[in-house]
């Protein structure tokens, strides 16, 4: 656990659990003190049994159009036992980003990595491969989402960086495309983000944060996006403002996302398309399906006049909510998921963007739903959970974000039947910084949705998850003062999920 006494807000760099927050090595090696080539830190991701992805992006003025960037991967923190090295060409066309892909690695092993270019060396990062397929390994991960920069400082990331996780599971809203309001904890540079250069600049600003850099440098990340990496509430090729050039905006946003995330070169987007959904296996007991509920969805029904995006509507005013042909994942991804559930695993984790449980916003005689989440696509939710029930898929735990609240819920095929069995469990993590709905409203919603066991929208944080063959333990972590990087971070509540019996139990 971190030493809460250290005045972090006043320190430029500090080491947590082997992860150096800023880049003293860069400064030491720099020819000119004001030119830092690795100012955005390092990252790793997509941990597989024998491979993973290492990321950085060069910074500073006068970068040549092509730069050779050397990387090395070691079995020890001192880089005396080198496990791999190579050279990538960082190009201006790809914002001088680097996506190195060492392979032939040992399963279930910790590695350290670093980069060198233009006479400077990056800080080093720590990463880890997935366990061997026959290893009955446990898993520890941090579930996180929604890190709106101008809503707070990243005390949650400071805390994650110091903890012992196998990876961070980040389920969307890495950046926000908005300008900042005059009252903000800190300010977005520039206005609303629409172009490739603007998206690149926004990512660079977020990634300049030392606590976020520390969380990346401390462990690999598994990532999916949500809407704000592109445009609030976008659906498929429709922007919230029905902008006519949304295809180009999405292409620019996806491109910048790939440039700034530890995804492999094979996933580099082509125009407005980038496949991010996929499956990750963790030893013999766990598989993780990472979903994309933005790129392929049908547009939201019953929007506000003249707009795209979400609305809150009564079912009686919007019968299209019950249209069984509509989909949140797209037909191909729905089929892929249905075929990929793994009956041999103890745990089938589902990493996706938003709250899956029904959360009706009014008494049941005048049911109202938020149309952007799964409630706006209830027949698709029913299809997914019906498959889980019919095939008795073991250990299904749905992990999400988006709604800026900690929610823990029992998932059912039929929410209208009070006796319907629980078929899966949901843990939705609150935001790192982004503000949530008023707690009084959530308290009201909870009264009408008894399958939602816990709901707190007034706290920021993340979820610390730990699982073995028998149980998953979820600790809902909360930040005491989101505007203070040095804030205390504590456990607000704990839940346990039995591998053999779906549903959440308060610990
Ligand atoms: Fe968000």
Model description:
- There is one protein chain.
- Helix content is 16%, strand content 28%.
- It has 507 residues and is an alpha+beta fold.
- A hairpin with a 3-residue loop joins β23 (461-467) and β24 (471-479).
- The two termini are 21 Å apart.
- The relative contact order is 0.12.
- Mean pLDDT is 93; it is low at 1-30.
- Fe (ii) ion (FE2) is lined by residues 146, 173, 228, 402, 404, 431, 434.
Quickly list its features:
binds fe (ii) ion; seven-stranded mixed beta sheet; 507 residues; 16% helix; disordered N terminus; alpha+beta
Structural class: alpha+beta
Q: Strand content of the residues, in percent? A: 25-35%
Uncertain regions: pLDDT < 50 for 5+ in a row?
1-30
Q: How many beta strands in the DSSP annotation?
A: 26
**Number of helical stretches of at least 4 residues:** 8
Overall form: globular
Amount of helix: 10-25%
Mean pLDDT: 93
The termini sit apart by: 21 Å
Strand arrangement, largest sheet?
Answer: 13-12-11-23-24-25-26
